[in-house]
Design brief:
Two copies of one chain form a homodimer. The first copy, chain A, has 198 residues and is of the alpha/beta class. Chain A has seven helices and six strands; from the N terminus they run αααβββαβαβαβα. Chain A has two domains: 6-53, RecR Domain 1 (Helicase, Ruva Protein, domain 3, Orthogonal Bundle); 76-169, Dna Topoisomerase Vi A Subunit, Chain: A, domain 2.
Chain lengths: 198, 198
């Protein structure tokens, strides 16, 4: 990354963003150049203070600019139910859906033994301590339905067993509006396995 | 844009980039948060100095960190042929194609009377002065083949007429590998109009 070519440097940095290839990064850099400098300054300023001003919630790991996030600070949320997610965007998606009224626990990691991410990346002590301290009745495991997400769910469930707390896993099946014709075999199998009495 | 929510502020700023909606902007912001702070700092730094370190080439308007761009400084480029483009990314695309060996003139604007962009946004005096000073033999108009690009090409061509320089327009027709079946009427019409003897 030669610092004597500021444009190439910016393109290289933007190209590290997810879903942004070199072509798009170049287009974005030219856009910033064509805009007046106030925009570039505002974006630079916002990025520069991001890590200082946004921290992890001391209770659940959600991003917050305060000591505790707005969900942990909200007395109307049910502290007896904990939803375990891998990443903050998953929490945001569940909040957008609007039906869950409990609190969260963000792992910020997934078990992926093949990629060399060992179990010590996941802080189970913090989760166990919280389950005990908050008298949690149920832990809902909402890690992804991928191999890594399933492995992590299993691992967390096992670690919680000695505490006697109820542990559940979100349902897997055909998505809303989905056609059976186009569902993959695993999803169809899960949909049958998880069938409910009517 | 409430400054008490640094994440929302960054999402709003990223959302102004072309092709980046709120959903993508949110994903990018979370990515930056999940990366270590060195990345955010580097990106902030790069954006912060961009407008100071990248300027317009004094000769042609291309972006450069020097007084004159690398194309204008290259003695092997044919100074007697000038290619007029609307924006720097167009110049970059022509350079990538690799067959053009002349120099450029970047307008940084297009004629778009309907959008209120009047002709005074286009600096024709600089172009005329350059044609005279560099003893240019041919000006190739490579503005887009859109309504605005065509209007601009016509406008530039008219202004150059008194100088007696040869003015040409890049060809319009079916793109390489293109099927006639899927070409629009205007393109097909231009392909016939611009046919060449074999």
């Amino acid at each position: 990354m030669p610092s004597d070519d500021p444009l190439a440097e910016l393109v290289a940095l933007l190209g590290r963003l997810p879903g942004i290839g070199e072509r798009t990064a170049t287009r974005l850099a030219y856009f910033v150049l064509a805009e007046d400098r106030a925009y570039a300054s505002a974006l630079a300023g916002s990025l520069g203070v991001l890590h200082d001003r946004v921290r992890r919630c001391a209770s659940c790991g959600n991003f917050t600019s305060a000591e505790r996030c707005r969900i942990c600070s909200d007395p109307r949320r049910d502290g007896a139910v904990l939803c375990v997610v891998a990443r903050v965007p998953d929490l945001v998606a569940i909040e957008r859906a609007g039906s869950y009224r409990g609190r969260y626990h963000v792992l910020h990691a997934l078990l992926a033994p093949l990629d060399g991410m060992s179990a010590d990346r996941i802080d189970l002590d913090a989760l166990s301590a919280r389950v005990r301290a908050d008298e949690v009745r149920e832990v809902v495991l909402a890690t992804p339905l991928s191999v890594e997400g399933e492995a992590t769910a299993l691992y967390v469930a096992q670690s919680l067993r000695p505490l006697g707390v109820k542990v559940s896993r979100i349902a897997s099946g055909i998505p809303h509006g989905g056609e059976l014709e186009f569902a993959d075999q695993v999803t169809l199998g899960r949909a049958f396995e998880g069938r409910k009495d009517l």
